[in-house]
Design goal:
Strand order of the largest sheet: 1-2-3-4
Radius of gyration: 18 Å
Structural class: alpha+beta
Number of domains: 2
CATH class of the largest domain: Mainly Beta
Helix content: 25-40%
CATH architecture of the largest domain: Roll
Number of helices: 3
Shape: globular
Largest sheet: 4 strands, antiparallel
Number of strands: 9
Length: 148
């Protein structure tokens, strides 16, 4: 398990955002992911055999992969992070990832809008500090792309 410099979670504890020395990552909280994977494994075990069971089993396997999905963005792809209107905004060097942080939802709401204002501000400060530590070279000439 990586050493986290900063971690925040949504108020319900379902989604976590982590900062390491090399990346920012977001996904379901470990306890929730483990619970869901356990329930999916039990469901696969309980479905029996036959063609319908195999079909349902494949769907459950796909569901298991979605439960474990995490977004990882290397720090070298980030220019900065800020909080605007209570929402975390990531500024990218180059283009924003196709399946970035915006792909994670909490109750049909983008997870980036779901963190407390205090946590979001603390996380943005930690990322911006780490960006200065990790890459003190100026990024002024690189193109900027935003993601909400």
């Amino acid at each position: 398990m990586p050493d986290f410099i900063e971690t925040i979670s949504t108020p319900d504890g379902h989604v976590e955002l982590h900062l390491t020395s090399s990346e920012v990552q977001m996904g379901l909280a470990d306890h929730l992911r483990e619970q869901a994977e356990s329930e999916l494994a039990k469901a696969r075990q309980d479905i029996g055999t036959g063609w319908l069971a195999r079909l349902v089993g494949k769907a459950l396997t796909l569901g298991s992969g979605a439960v474990g999905h995490q977004v990882h963005v290397p720090l070298e792809q980030l220019r900065s992070v800020e909080v605007r209107d209570g929402t975390l905004h990531f500024e990218y060097v180059g283009h924003a990832p196709r399946f970035g942080f915006q792909s994670i939802q909490v109750k049909n709401r983008p997870a980036l809008e779901s963190f407390s204002l205090q946590d979001a501000q603390r996380f943005a400060m930690a990322v911006n500090h780490q960006l200065k530590v990790a890459a003190p070279v100026s990024l002024a000439d690189a193109p900027v792309h935003s993601e909400v």
